[in-house]
């Protein structure tokens, strides 16, 4: 939990702490660690926070700057009927499956203001590789697939937004919107390790070692 808080403090809250009158959409509440931090920024900068979770997390905080919405994060029409038309910050921390993250990102990205931010939690499979229980396979494979999907989206949209990663804890994608242009569809990234030139390169290295 300590690493998780440090990750958010250094790579999320430190990035958005100076935004004036921020409108923040948080997808995923759980224990409310991120919710309370977002509310602190809203109190300091006169912002508003809208949090979505399928579970009833309404008791996490009591603040007039906060609106809790009990719903799936892909109940788009319902959520849009409550939140403002434009937002400054989007935090995605719900279902960590690549296709779901892609759908959520593409829909809500249109609401992000230029120079606004999207943060996607749980993009690193590294913490689940060694000395973990077999049930952690779900986290490992989904985080890795999500990471790859984000790269595919970025590969066709590098002029539309900037992308950075933190690999603290379970990882975080940090996206800053650069233009109001419509997003292009993801491009499947082909690995160059299977290219014929790379096969020849490996053969050459083996010959040199002999």
Task: Write a compact overview of the structure shown.
The chain is α/β, with parallel strands linked by helices and 210 residues long. The chain has helices at 2-16, 33-45, 76-80, 98-109, 137-155, 196-209, and strands spanning 23-27, 48-53, 66-70, 87-92, 112-121, 161-166, 172-177.
Distance between the termini: 50 Å
Low-confidence stretches: none
CATH topology descriptor:
Rossmann fold
Please work out how many helical segments DSSP would assign: 6
pLDDT averaged over residues: 91
Count structural domains.
1
Within CATH, the superfamily carries the name: Vaccinia Virus protein VP39
Largest sheet: 7 strands, mixed
Number-wise, the strands total 7
Would you kindly provide a written description of the structure presented here, covering whatever features stand out?
This protein has 210 residues and is an alpha/beta fold. It has a single domain (2-209), classed as Rossmann fold (3-Layer(aba) Sandwich). The protein has six helices and seven strands. The chain has helices at residues 2-16, 33-45, 76-80, 98-109, 137-155, 196-209, and strands at residues 23-27, 48-53, 66-70, 87-92, 112-121, 161-166, 172-177. A seven-stranded mixed beta sheet has the order 3-2-1-4-5-7-6, sandwiched between helices. Helix 1 packs parallel to helix 2 and helix 4 packs across helix 5 (137-155). The model has no long low-confidence stretch (mean pLDDT 91).
Layout of SSEs?
Elements: H1 2-16, E1 23-27, H2 33-45, E2 48-53, E3 66-70, H3 76-80, E4 87-92, H4 98-109, E5 112-121, H5 137-155, E6 161-166, E7 172-177, H6 196-209
Parallel strand pairs: 1-2, 1-4, 2-3, 4-5
Antiparallel strand pairs: 5-7, 6-7
Helix pairs in contact: 1-2, 4-5
